[in-house]
Amino acid sequence: xxxxxKNASGAKASKTPMYAHGNYAPMHNTCPPTPCRYTGDIxxxxxxxxxxxxxxxxxxxxxxxxxxxxxxxDGMLSGVFFRKGKGKAVQPEFVNNYVLTDILLASRxxxxxxxxxxPSITTLINPRSSMFKIVYAICRAILLVIWSYLNxxxxxxxxxxxxxxxxxxxxxxxxxxxxxxxxxxxxLPELDTVGWFNGLMAEGEPEDSISPSLTGFGGPGLMGFxxxxxxxxxxxxxxxxxxxxxxxxxxxxxxHYSVVPDSRSQEASLEQSEPLFNLPVPGVKSAKMMxxxxxxxxHTIIIDLPLSLDPLNLAYNKxxxxxxxxxxxxxxxxxxxxxxxxxWFETEPCCILHTVNSWDDVITDKGTxxxxxxCRMTSAAIVFSTGNIRPPPNLRNVEDECRLYYFQFDLSQxxxxxxxxxxxxxxxxxxxxxxxxLTMSATQYIYGCTMSKGKFSTALGGAAKIDCLAKLxxxxxxxxxxxxxxxxVTGSVDSRSAQEILASNDPDDPIKIFQTPPGWYLxxxxxxxxxxxVSEDDGWLLTFVFxxxxxxxxxxxxxxxxxxxxxxxxxxxxxxxxxxxxxxxxYGLHGWWFSEDDVCNQRAVETCRSG
Length: 611
Known about the structure:
Keywords: Iron, Metal-binding, Oxidoreductase. The strands form 8 sheets. Strands 2, 29, 30, 31, 32 and 33 form a 6-stranded antiparallel sheet that branches. This protein has a 5-stranded antiparallel sheet with strand order 1-5-4-3-34. Strands 20-21-22-23-27 form a 5-stranded mixed sheet. The chain is mainly β. Strand 10 and strand 11 form a beta hairpin. The longest helix is centred in the N-terminal third of the chain and has 20 residues, at 131-150. It contains 8 helices and 34 strands.
């Protein structure tokens, strides 16, 4: 077999990193809304709604030898719209589209470019990257940004986000996100790109009556540019409809914070109708990689990890992104609209890329306990392995693991001590999901990805393959843990492996696992509730699925490979419907379910981007 054989994306077979290989490889074909075959029944709750998932999909330069990371790449949205027909009839339609960011449009306008404009995350985290290589990559990106203003191109690079992380809905807007820029508005169901959202309005929208005293995210100058960098995981309060975000930067005070009301809401209180923009969060001492945070009805939780993201590291001959095995993880808890009242709680070093849910419990007249569920990793190994880099030696000699953890912060106490911190289960758990209408409250069930074998921090040269969805009764598991607390930090309420849970026939088991057939792998799931459901889990899970038997003998996905969208009954954890898509959907990141009301009640758009 010719070792220079190429797959459908154009990548050569030899030395291709696993996170650019198989169904991780990018898909360049974009598809307008296209009818799909399906087997099974589509519940009427899906009519007029749309499921959309975001993910990095590099649009150029897949040559071997260059650095590549799973988190690199231009944002591509893949979705299934459930178009209403006559009566109860429904027709699922697949659609995918690139998010037309400044970076992507400038790249398309510069056909002579041999490499992406932005440096790969792999370049920034690799201990073997020379200072010259890193400085060259950063300076090259800066020069290309400047050149985009000078070369007469229609699209100058004003924002460097690739909008490849997630997608949410707030106040009549679907917003694609990434933490090195503001959100980008897109349309439903076509997934066309409208423009950058600044917290007040999006480019491409009709001019609105906005107070001239409000500037939205960021402001003038370099500091204003950095303060537009908005978390890839904004939170939307399902009751107040507020959008809560933070902005992590390289310059003191390192973290800013914004709360954006739903300007369409008729039920918001006077306080909830007032926006807060760019408030500093005191107490962060250096630039950090912050990917997610927690938000309850009353409080916000900022997570300060021992994971630096600081260009000044280069002055000390260290990678821009570095994990400190002897550092501390800190949780900054404060009232939603008062970041100046932050209280910092410290614990053992760990890495948290995704939170699951947060909620408040009023326990005394003196205060409240704030609760957090998060996917806790014992190191940042996954950040390196997804860039095909051997993780640094684990200096604490702790096994790499990623588990669902419960944290409790008692604000009624004078001392900032974490009351409880332990795992709910020992199974690997990531890419979590809580039904959107139940977030910020003490839900009974949460969902997420796990594996029958293996772990998320895979060995060098491998890639995580997710063959299971887990459903956890966190209410039962937390109650059990509070009655008989496991060892702090290292303990777990449930010590069974995924295989042991799969073998269980207990109908009241607090953990249930859906497993795909051999060779089939799935992605993050999303919950769609049944109308007038009688229990929290009365609804369905959606997930994109791929059969890897379609791969060729070199492990590449040939042209013509196809994915499916599966519907799984969340009560029984059994598949009920398969939707056959016209093309492959690469393994990606985070998605959102948009209801028929969301789709029908989008804000007006004057222009969309093209190029």
